[in-house]
Amino acid sequence: MYEDGEDRSKTYGYKIRNFFVMKLLGEPVSVLDVGCSHGHFLASLTESVEPKVGVDIVRVPLNDAKRKSLSIVLADAHLLPFRDEAFQLVTAREVIEHLVAPYEALKEWARVSSKSIIISSPVQDGYRTYNPVLYTLWRMRDLMVQRQRRTLTEQQRLSKESGHISVMTKTQILNLFSEEKNWKTEKYIFSLRTPLALVLDMKSFPKQLRKLVLRIEILLSIIPARISTLLFFEGFAAAVKFTRL
Prior knowledge:
The protein has a single domain, classed as Vaccinia Virus protein VP39 (Rossmann fold). Helix 3 links the parallel strand 2 and strand 3. Strands 3-2-1-4-5-7-6 form a seven-stranded mixed sheet. By secondary structure, it is α/β, with parallel strands linked by helices. The N terminus is likely disordered. The chain is built from ten helices and seven strands.
């Protein structure tokens, strides 16, 4: 999932999704972050959150997280080495779309959570717009990405695709706990992306311009969906909070 040690948590897409996760966070007492990677999310939590533990199945980023004096465990998201209701909150940021058995993993996260679960993920039915100009720009960008990938080695290609094998629709994400009577969907956010962020490579932007685009996108998240689909691509990613009844 990481190419040449790249820390993807610092990219634009991850930052905007982490922003929406923080909007749903509340004031947890203890947190388990599934798929914690380099540990940036755990490190951003206040000292009052204790314990805060990270789990990942990839060893390389975990070594970096341990150097930050974080509590890190090498484990599978489908089988967590913790007792029932060990943590008040379980977070899984950009994890569920990589899992072979996402519903089985979800049951495991529910087992170790005493109160809430926050999931963020890309959505399968995203990238919608009724604006023909934006759609044309998006298709042009998509073709350019495909052309670039033809020059990659097989290992680089697998790294960039990142194993998205269980990407869900908005409805599927919201209904993840529909069969669990003791859980409910409490809050959710489907973030939007500006045309600028969609069409251009954010890594090549100057830092101040990236900050400006991030602020614009946050403001756009409050626009009603019927209006936003005329102006922007919608449904780039979801952040959903589930709560135990």
